[in-house]
Amino acid sequence: MPNLDRRDRSILNFLQENGRLTNAELAEKVSLSPSACLRRVKLLEESGLIAGYHMQLDMKACGLSGAAFVFVTLDGQGRETLARFERAIKHINEIQDCYLLAGQYDYLLRIVYRNAEDLERIHHDILTNLPGVVRVNSTLTLRAVKHTSKLEM
């Protein structure tokens, strides 16, 4: 991680809170000229600290009533087994997050679904048919208490 001063950290924190800030607004918040602020933002992007910008949709407004965490056990842990599984899940929109785990399970997935029938479809038609899957164990969420991707700088 490059050496960050107070202004760089402020830039990163403000952009994490609102990625739609204009350069002029951001410059004012961090007490820099617009050109100096833009230069710093470009350097932070080039350094890889800023990985991208995105917006977040509201699940309920999109017709998605639930989320579940799914623990997946594969039939082996060899590189090719893991690679086949990871390739297969890359383009499945219902799978929002996927983490390789150390411990009892091989992967943890976060999936979203519309209703009970949709969850059953995802479980039966998608998850259990992924390469190498021998077991899935799902835990349904009741509500999100905290959801963030912000990292304190």
Q: Specify Rg, calculated over alpha carbons.
A: 20 Å
Q: What would the principal axes of the Cα set say about the shape?
A: elongated
- Which oligomerization state do the chains in this entry correspond to? single chain
Reported for the largest beta sheet, the result is: 4 strands, antiparallel
- Secondary-structure element pattern, one letter each: HHHEHEEHE
- Number of DSSP E strands: 4
Tally of contiguous helical segments: 5
Mean pLDDT: 95
Task: Compile the SSE list and pairings.
Blueprint: H1 6-17, H2 23-29, H3 34-47, E1 66-74, H4 79-89, E2 95-100, E3 107-113, H5 116-126, E4 133-140
Antiparallel strand pairs: 1-3, 1-4, 2-3
Descriptive notes:
This protein has about 150 residues and is of the alpha+beta class. The chain contains five helices and four strands, in the order αααβαββαβ. It has a four-stranded antiparallel beta sheet. It is elongated and about 55 Å long. The chain starts with 5 loop residues before the first helix and ends in a 13-residue tail after the last strand. The model has no long low-confidence stretch (mean pLDDT about 95).
